[in-house]
Amino acid sequence: MPDLLLELFSEEIPARMQAKAADDLRRLVTEKLVAEGLVYEGAKAFVTPRRLALTVHGIPTRQPDLKEERKGPRVGAPDAAIQGFLKGAGLSSLSEAKIEKGAKKGEFYVALIEKPGRAALDVLAEALPVIVRTFPWPKSMRWGARSIKPGSLSWVRPLHSIIATFGPETEDPEIVRFTIDGIAARQTTRGHRFMAPGEISVRRFDDYVAKLEAAKVVLDGERRKDIILADAKSLAFAQGFELVEDAGLLEEVAGLVEWPVVLMGSFDASFLSIPPEVIRATIRNNQKCFVVRDPKTGKLANKFVLVANIEATDGGQTIVAGNERVIRARLSDAKFFYETDLRTRLEARLPKFEQIVFHEKLGTQAARIARIERLAAEIAPLVGADVTKVKRAAKLAKADLLTEVVGEFPETQGLMGRYYALAQGEDASVASASEEHYKPQGPNDRVPADPVSIVIALADKIDTLAGFWAIDEKPTGSKDPYALRRAALGVIRLAVDNELRLHLSTIAKSGVDGLRETGARMTSVDGCELSSSLLAFFADRLKVQLRDQGARHDLVDAVFALEGQDDMLMIVRRVEALGKFLDTDDGKNLLAGTKRAANILRIEEKKDGTSYDGAVDASLLRQPEEKALATAIAGVTNDASAAVAKEDFAGAMSAMARLRPAVDAFFDKVKVNDDDKAIRENRLKLLNQIRVATRAVADFSKIQD
Length: 705
Prior knowledge:
This protein is an alpha+beta fold.
């Protein structure tokens, strides 16, 4: 079956747009093929700094023929309806239609429409220009004399040529004939901008890839990444160093070159007095270069690795020298910023926060720091942290936001706070909190373990959550501009990973009190209501986390349904114990029995208009099975409650398991809706006792079968 080769060759495709552009091209073309009945075997898109390419394998040569029955008006319908039917079906007269009998409305006309499939080449010639013209670039431009005409092509950068060929591997392919803005599709492209700028004639995909390679273009972005990484590692190793790998930078650099050539440069060793993260940020951000380190000490070396897009005749000496000049200037700036920052103590910067607004309704950064300090002092005893250190850390944690280095490299916030705090003689825990209070910033980020860092991280995140909840700026759908979901997950991980006993509703209410004290313009002032709403949000985030870890989210609902459940660590432990219990036969059968009891109660309570939550009358227990159930419930309730009180959730589940045989026997032998009204009512109350007993560990009604 034939293959399609498509290339859109332009002046430039910015690296940040490349991955999405390749995915969009593959998606748009293949979706159109399928919509036209041309089901293909496989497709793959490629992108370089100058070309967007697609190969689609196994496309049928023609669309399938279409046969369709179109129902028309009833026999004897008005002439206007008849004429509309004939025109829509492409019939010249009613003699070309057939008559069918309907079940209710008598006879009606039916047209049999047969539409022969078109050649795939014609379908592509019609579809591809539309896809190119409507391509979803984030930003695009018009150019040249044609740009003044209505409907002129808009593309990411000037489009120079189009390849579009279609045909089987065993034959010469045909060109898909179309023209866009004077650019006709053909079989010709160009190689590397400098090393092979001449035209190249290609036939099909394999031929295209091979000829591009000969013209100094590596089409596959993944292969360019592999070449860069392997050559960079080898070059560093050959000189006794180790490459500091950077997946994001590798992705970006691979999108900047069509023929990667790896070179190494150096900078003055005096710059190594700057924190290594600042050196790396300077070299990475300004020149897109990698840094290397001494494998023995782990310290940065005064070398860098760059990726050129050309095999220079001088072996790359001029390219290296140019990069060295720029890096020397940038590192000089960074060194100046760093040394300037060191002259001012962190606390001396704090008054400036009085003039910096954190949020128009939540006040200044100074007010926010005051809230974090207040809240941190309350949390500190719960974590076992030194209150004096905690208050000092809370005061200084944001100060580096006003430094020169962080202004130049925002990604170093927190990190520079730690460097500056240590430089001015702060306690190590206080200094670490400046960096670690932002953590964890994602599911794979490290969770702080130092008590002072934990406290500041909790206070920072809870103040953020309480603040935006108080002004009704909650996440909606996929929108979360203030990263509140991440903040909630961070609080959960801080508590669970460090095995902390925290009552979040109480802490959240303290956060709201702090907002009130600093004059925040809150939409709602009911602290209890806000903390309850926040707790529900934490529950949702915990469900997401547990589900990602393979746990059942309905078990979280079952535990949260119990009153007063706001200790994330205990909730997780209870969910774990409940999950293990429900994996046993005793757990599964008890769940089934409990749900059966709940269903009967729900039906009977609705029918009777009353609830059966009163005490069971022992004198009305007639059958041995109901007496045994009543005895079992009493014993199990006591034992399970005692185990829960000791936070022995596995023990509570073991106690619950003893209820299973009595429940099974009861439903096997006892008729709940006895003819005697008093006995029926007593047995319904006994069923309610099952529900009450199991609620010692969870609300079983929330658990899915």
